[in-house]
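RECORD TYPE: inverse folding
INPUT: structure tokens
STRUCTURE:
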């Protein structure tokens, strides 16, 4: 679990006092990995405390994190500083948060990031790392994984060293998120709740977090009586609780299929989950009905026919990636999942999208 967290509007201003006590020495910098969308945004960047050799690296979130990108960043950081960083601070959405977690791990572990995709393969504790979300939904701020696309698979580095040492939850930072993206990333949280609460791995720990997150999602996406500020606050906490819920259970059908879309077509996680979930009535009847209501109420149009022109070989690649995620299928459909979700069945679902 994340060992330290501060919450509240304006809590981002606590960043200097939080990090300074963690500085190893003046040659060991803090490296800020910041979403490029904030470049030139002095409202945010002027509050990033830079001293000695501290550095901001702006990174685009247009593409999801890759193992090769993590390896390049680690090399860049090592080559441009005398000492190993005192800390890595990620500011942005799931993309930047996951990159920050992965970079902090790879600064203290040999080899390449792809070698650590899986469960509990990381040997050494990561460099001190701080996560500051600027969009709510993924739960990446609280989770035990950093999802990376590698040469062969899209899979997380799941380990006890992955969670942030410190998180700053400041709902103010989410105020300029574009509406579509707000919905897509928010729905990631909603889908985490449904997949966790309806899964066979469910237990009292996950259920308690999942139910709270679901209640908050309903407030944000279905109840028009809340103000924008209240919605920002509630979605930030929904994301946190949704992430906690899947920490002790798993996601399900939508995530497995969305990983396939992402691997082959580069479809981003939030929108990919929405595209898939829209067609999963068979598995999550109530969840999908509510999703359609949220979509309508918030006036969201999803991309259509993204699989229309795929070749059989391309379908096979997506199917292989999706079916390789065994824990997700077992959580969703039980131990005999492979009798239900055959490659043929999966293809027929993808063909609807
Ligand atoms: P994102 O980080 O890719 O950001 C989405 C878009 O919103 C980007 O264009 C970004 O620039 C913009 N944005 C972010 N904050 C903004 C702000 N305050 N104002 C204006 N624009 C802003 O999106 P995401 O949905 O948060 O993250 C998706 C990633 O998270 C995927 O790579 C996915 O694999 C990963 N993920 C990780 C976990 C985990 O547990 N580690 C869980 C779910 C998803
Ligand atoms: Zn997700």
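DESIGNED SEQUENCE:
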């Amino acid at each position: 679990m994340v060992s330290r967290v501060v919450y509240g509007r304006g809590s981002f201003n606590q960043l200097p006092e939080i990090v300074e006590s963690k500085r190893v020495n003046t040659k060991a910098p803090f490296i800020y990995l910041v979403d490029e969308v904030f470049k030139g945004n002095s409202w945010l960047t002027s509050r990033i405390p830079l001293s000695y050799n501290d550095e901001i690296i702006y990174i685009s979130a247009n593409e999801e994190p890759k193992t090769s990108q993590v390896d390049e960043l680690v090399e860049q950081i090592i080559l441009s500083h005398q000492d190993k960083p005192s800390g890595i601070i990620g500011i942005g959405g799931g993309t930047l948060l996951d990159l920050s977690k992965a970079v902090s791990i790879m600064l203290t572990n040999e080899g390449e990031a792809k070698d650590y995709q899986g469960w509990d393969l990381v040997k050494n504790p990561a460099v001190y790392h701080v996560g500051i979300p600027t969009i709510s939904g993924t739960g990446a701020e609280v989770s035990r994984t950093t999802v990376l696309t590698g040469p062969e698979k899209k899979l997380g580095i799941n380990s006890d060293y992955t969670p942030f040492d410190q998180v700053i939850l400041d709902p103010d930072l989410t105020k300029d998120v574009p509406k579509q993206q707000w919905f897509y990333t928010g729905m990631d949280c909603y889908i985490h709740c449904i997949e966790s609460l309806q899964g066979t791995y469910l237990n009292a720990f996950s259920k308690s977090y999942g139910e709270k997150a679901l209640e908050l999602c309903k407030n944000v996406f279905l109840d028009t009586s809340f103000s924008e500020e209240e919605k920002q606050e509630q979605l930030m906490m929904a994301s946190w609780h949704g992430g906690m819920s899947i920490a002790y259970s798993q996601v399900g059908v939508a995530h497995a299929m969305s990983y396939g879309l992402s691997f082959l077509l580069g479809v981003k996680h939030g929108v990919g989950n929405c595209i898939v979930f829209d067609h999963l009535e068979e598995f999550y009847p109530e969840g999908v009905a509510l999703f359609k209501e949220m979509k309508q109420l918030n006036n969201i149009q999803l991309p259509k026919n993204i699989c229309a022109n795929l070749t059989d070989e391309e379908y096979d690649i997506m199917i292989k990636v999706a079916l390789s995620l065994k824990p997700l299928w077992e959580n969703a459909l039980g131990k005999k999942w492979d009798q239900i979700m055959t490659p043929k069945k999966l293809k027929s679902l993808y063909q609807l999208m």
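NOTES: The chain has two domains: 4-174, 179-350.
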